[in-house]
Amino acid sequence: MTDDKSPAERYAAAKKRNADQATALAPFREMYDFELDEFQIQACQALEAGKGVLVAAPTGSGKTIVGEFAVHLALSQGRKCFYTTPIKALSNQKFNDLSARYGADRVGLLTGDNSVNGDAPVIVMTTEVLRNMLYAGSRALEGLGHVVMDEVHYLSDRFRGAVWEEVIIHLPESVNLVSLSATVSNAEEFGDWLDTVRGDTEVIVSEHRPVPLWQHVLAGRRMYDLFEEKSGRREVNPDLLRMARMENSRVSGPRDRRRGPRREADRERERRQRTRIWTPSRAEVIDRLDSEGLLPAITFIFSRAGCQAAVQQCLYAGLRLNDTEARARVRAIVEERTAAIPDEDLHVLGYFEFLEGLERGIAAHHAGMLPTFKEVVEELFVKGLVKAVFATETLALGINMPARSVVLEKLVKWNGEQHADITPGEFTQLTGRAGRRGIDVEGHAVVLWQRGMDPGAVAGLAGTRTYPLRSSFKPSYNMAVNLVEQFGRHRSRELLETSFAQFQADRSVVGISRQVQKNEEGLEGYREGMTCHLGDFEQYARLRRDLKDRENELAREGVAQRRAQAAAALEKLKPGDVIHVPTGRFAGLALVLDPGLPSGRAQGRRGTDHHDGPRPLVLTAQRQVKRLAGIDFPVAVEPLDRMRIPKSFNARSPQSRRDLASALRTRAGHHEPQRHRRQRAAAADDHEISRLRAELRAHPCHGCDEREDHARWAERYHRLRRDTRQLERRIEGRTNTIARTFDRVYALLADLGYLSGDEVTVDGKRLARLYGELDLLAAESLREGVWEGLPPSELASCVSALVFEARAADDALPPRLPTGRAKEALGEMVRIWGRLDSLEDQHRITQSEGVGLREPDLGFAWAAYLWAEGHGLDVVLRDVDMPAGDFVRWCKQVIDVLQQVAVAAGSGGTVAKNARRAVEAMQRGVVAYTSVG
Questions:
Q1: Are 175 and 147 in contact (CB under 8 A)?
Q2: Which positions ≥6 away from 860 have C-beta within 8 Å?
Q3: Which of 69, 211, 232, 814 is the most buried (most CB within 10 A)?
Q4: CA distances from 282 to 133, 286, 299, 363 (A)
Q5: pLDDT, tens only, 414-460
Q6: How far is the C-alpha of 149 from the C-alpha of 84, rounded, in Å?
């Protein structure tokens, strides 16, 4: 076969091949047994050309190859590369991958838990570790050539996102940044910001999935495709729409449409419909996927308890996904990985039930599990020895566990405050796990049918492949002292104004400014429309508005006065008073059982008072016991009579209610309800209203024949001017927002003596070494000697209050605390927090803006104390009723802060020494065990 290219074309192709072979990319490509995608090649070439890159691509598309090329490039140039990840599990996984490729001597690991080969040229670390190194001016930064920020879209995270921006802003200019992100809709905007703060940055966006993803809905015994192709267009499957309509009509039922008994034919039709539509059980789903060759699968359940229950349900159903040989391999791997855990702890951790599920190829994966157990599940899943995993959404965040299928039980999850629909971004992240590159021809995402499901809404989630990246950056106390120490106050302020948060705010101002200009043009037109030949109609319209505003104000005052009178009357009520409830569902005669006076501030909620007035508990004449609210009493009530409430009265007993209600009707049934005379309107006697009405009548425009037509134009003018002023205030509020917040944080720290001008005081230097949400509380506790003289176990219990946050808010029972000095110290910490909370209010620093200190949570103090005292895992978990994984995670966070305290406290006093002893006491058993290093 002859080459049809011209000699010039062949020469150009040969020249290009030779040039490609001379690059660092050529030997890198040979390390893989598959061809790189175009977006990967483009990103690697940009890196080799000395540019920074932002790669936004779907989960599972292979964007980490670009990060691995940065490692390869750094090693070939004799420079260092830091590979940062958002979570320790992902750091451990990446460390293992890079160690296998480049050798254990060239790769290190730095997380809060582990330090392995910290002087290696390639170091995998969590993003927080790199942030701390930058502030400390670590010598490890010398010779740094590249930093890879995996999962950079984490900067949207409201709790930890600021760390990513801190790193991006403070990295030396000589460092090339590789940012790897999920597909976000504003990648170009993020790239423009990177270009501003980091220099030349190439944005590479790929929405192509290397493994096609098919969307399904599983209802009853049938799996429906979510979409159908019609005339080249993708539409929602009409069978699903028909099924949803049929279910909705069945809710109303034939009986609503036809009075009298249903015919047998109707009942038979409904029975057939029911047999076709139901939500299959978890065991049925796995069995169905297995029969169709769609395993391995990850089923996302937004509940830890639900994940554990799902495994048990599959075991009870007799599911076995592994043969004898696979079971033996599973047992061998599990026993090897858990050999370091003491036998007595294995019993407490439910090891044997865990092993039974693994041997059958079924497992749970969630944050409440022991990290070792989660790592075992991940390893077995990747090796194909676990084929069904029930997981919470945390598994979707970066860990390399691709499956053939992903199942979503529900499209609603608890977000910490309420049950909310999952977002298109969350749906994309979860279903992105489906389809293993190089193994599967296609991936499958299966949503289980639920009553009331809207197929159109599901299609909307599945069809929206991107979501916007929003900054969550806010200056913290620790950040402020570190910035001032390095750059001084003025330069720090300028640096913060380069954040992505301010970049986005400034960009949004452009659109608002355009709207202000349009509004000003509209105002000019409205001004012409209200022009009156008799006089200044704008002045006349202002008088009309002032009159209306005054009338509304008096009406509001009247309502408020009546409410205050009603509340004052309710506060005087006593148990046994007979009253007449004026309005509402329970209007009529009632006996007060409990006045229901307010109790003051709600525990644990900042600035939220329960001053919504008394809420009396009453027994109505109709035998109902109800807690009434202020809305039931629009006017003041007076007791009509008094009755004795028997000591034996039980509000839950129907007989007790019946007897007392009967006595109430007998005793007070003859009383007539109070008649409230309507009071004279306040406007009738108001001098301001009389003056405004007189001025209106005397104004020249009052006699204009077109007065009301002018007034309509004037009202439009007023509304548009009000809207324009709001837009102008928004512009003012968005300009320099981060810098203004920094000014408030600086002022508070200066008041406390942590900063003085451009200088960081001795106390400020201590604060600079303390990282975390409650950094300032920790610094104040050290400064005031709250922890001085505490033994290690009691110090651990106090430090736990700085990190722990209960999953369930407003726990009814007060937490158990160690006795003695630890209890006093914890109480003192809460008092210090109260003082700081008041200071923050004075400086207008609010938690709603993401700045400020939350109240310390004492819920882990007892567990930390017991563990540091040397008690066994069984004793601790039984006493605190907490999953093992949560216990280990909180212990590691307590250890992390104890290590910070040991450094910050300095050599004077006992705190540093006892903090180190507390670390040694807690670093044991399941807390100390790790699969890395």
A1: yes
A2: 800, 801, 803, 804, 880, 890, 894
A3: 69
A4: 47, 6, 9, 13
A5: 655 566 777 777 777 787 778 877 777 888 889 888 877 778 878 77
A6: 5
